[in-house]
Write a structure and sequence with these properties.
This protein is α/β, with parallel strands linked by helices and 339 residues long. The chain has helices at residues 13-24, 41-50, 64-73, 88-93, 95-115, 149-167, 201-210, 237-252, 273-284, 308-314, 322-338; strands at residues 4-8, 28-33, 56-58, 78-81, 119-125, 173-178, 180-182, 216-219, 231-232, 234-236, 260-265, 271-272, 290-293. The protein has 2 domains: 4-183 and 234-266, NAD(P)-binding Rossmann-like Domain (Rossmann fold); 201-231 and 268-308 and 321-338, UDP-galactose 4-epimerase, domain 1, CATH 3.90.25.10. The protein binds uridine-5'-diphosphate.
Length: 339
């Protein structure tokens, strides 16, 4: 019998891509989402890609009785938890909204999942490293004091998972620390759908190219990097999604070396903002209207992953080039424009 995975926040950008890869790998998937930050576009896109309907449960993980009900209706081998708020700036303005939602939903989930022997994968972020003195960062690089309540919820949730797995028998936990997820499924049926003005670089680039935004501001060209712009590790969304399949399989097949494991999910390849812009221009054939602007507060000059632990232990490796990733992001933006 195939194993069943719950994807909380599965109607969103990362969750929808992960759902597709889980189904491709032979898992049954149940999507649960409160739809607070997305519409049905990606869920419908997932169903088109996989050629069948998936259960979609509209629910909020802050409501523990709803979580309990879900776990009595289905038997899950693992849950992947994406259901969380993710806007860094908003978290600074409304910290309690972030602490309440992101932490309560996760503790509720663990509380119920642990009693059912359900393994837990937490979607963490490279933001937990802050500004590291050594680059690239490995999983042993010390975490720094978070610079936003959002980042702090990622650190706190990692710790909650670590402590819970240690205390309660019968469950495993993995935290995946994502670097900068970008791109879209090659079908162009699912992708990133930012509400309002995008905060992130890649959707701002594609929206500028399509004419939704007038001009991209490159935040800072006086950083101590080769071209003066920040360095990041842009990880293709499909590659990133596949890492989840590897991690879930490791947990459900009992191949964990430790009850709680942490992995960097990145390419190991630093790319500057300017390089990303130039590469986009090349693959799309569209010149991009951009200007240099002052640094954005809270940005760090450079961070990229050492992904060798995930390469070795998960048997996972980022495969797609920046060109392929940006071409997919551009195809998705064009698909949205045609709708
Ligand atoms: N960035 C930019 N213009 C934008 C958005 C982002 O120059 O409109 C830069 C930002 O300063 C950072 C990089 O792009 O150096 C990646 O930013 P993003 O918000 O996508 O991810 P972050 O690394 O901050 O999580």
């Amino acid at each position: 019998m195939s194993k069943c995975v719950l994807v909380s926040g599965g109607a969103g950008y990362i969750g929808s891509h992960v759902t597709v890869e889980l189904v491709n790998a032979g898992y049954e998937v149940v999507v649960a989402d409160n739809m607070s930050n997305c519409d049905l576009t990606c869920y419908n896109g997932v169903c088109s890609i996989i050629g069948k309907e998936l259960p979609l449960v509209k629910m909020d993980f802050c409501d523990i009785s709803a979580v309990q009900k879900l776990f009595t209706e289905y038997k899950f081998d693992a849950v992947i938890h994406f259901a969380a708020f993710k806007a860094v700036g908003e978290s600074v303005d409304e910290p309690l909204k972030y602490y309440r939602n992101n932490i309560l939903s996760f503790t509720n989930l663990i509380e119920v999942a642990r009693k059912k022997g359900c393994n837990i994968l937490f979607s963490s972020s490279a933001t937990v490293y802050g500004e590291s003195e050594t680059l690239p960062v490995t999983e042993r690089t010390p975490r720094q004091q978070a610079t936003s309540p959002y980042g702090n919820t990622k650190q706190i949730c990692e710790d909650i998972l670590r402590d819970s797995v240690k205390a309660y028998e019968g469950i495993n936990g993995i935290a995946l620390r994502y670097f900068n997820p970008v791109g879209a499924h090659p079908s162009a049926l699912i992708g990133e759908l930012p509400r309002g003005v995008p905060n992130n670089l890649a959707p701002f680039i594609t929206q500028t190219a399509i004419g939704k935004r007038e001009c991209l501001s490159i935040f800072g060209n006086d950083y101590p990097t080769e071209d003066g712009t920040c360095l990041r590790d842009y990880i293709d969304i499909v590659d990133l999604a596949k890492a989840h399949v590897c991690a879930v399989t490791r947990m459900v097949e009992g191949r964990m070396k430790d009850g709680y494991e942490v992995y960097n999910i990145g390419t190991g390849r630093p790319v500057s903002v300017l390089e990303l812009v130039k590469t986009f221009e090349k693959v799309s054939g569209k010149p991009l209207n951009y200007k240099f602007a002052p640094r954005r507060s809270g940005d760090i000059a450079a961070i990229w992953a050492d992904p060798s632990l995930a390469n070795k232990e998960l048997g996972w490796k980022a495969e797609r080039s920046v060109e392929q990733t940006l071409a997919a992001a551009w195809a998705w933006e064009q698909h949205l424009a045609e709708k």
